[in-house]
Write a structure and sequence with these properties.
Structural class: alpha+beta
Strand content: 15-25%
Number of strands: 3
Radius of gyration: 13 Å
Order of helices and strands: EEEH
Helix content: 25-40%
Length: 66
């Protein structure tokens, strides 16, 4: 049975001002330092932050190219 992970569930979705997201150990934090979630390991937190930032960059590029 997989171990449960703890997440800080925001009442709202991520906003453009939250980016870039970074990893601080197991925590994912917004650009202003607000905690967003906790991953199982620091490596997973880093990967999640990278993927969120890549997705945000792609969306921003799509807005400019539209």
């Amino acid at each position: 049975m997989p171990k449960e992970t703890t997440a800080i569930i925001p009442k709202e979705t991520l906003k453009p001002d939250d980016f870039p997201v970074s990893a601080d150990g197991e925590k994912l934090v917004a650009a202003d330092g607000t905690p967003l979630a906790k991953a199982k390991t620091p490596a997973i937190a880093e990967e999640i932050a990278d993927r969120l930032n890549e997705d945000d960059n792609r969306k921003e590029e799509d807005r400019w190219s539209a």
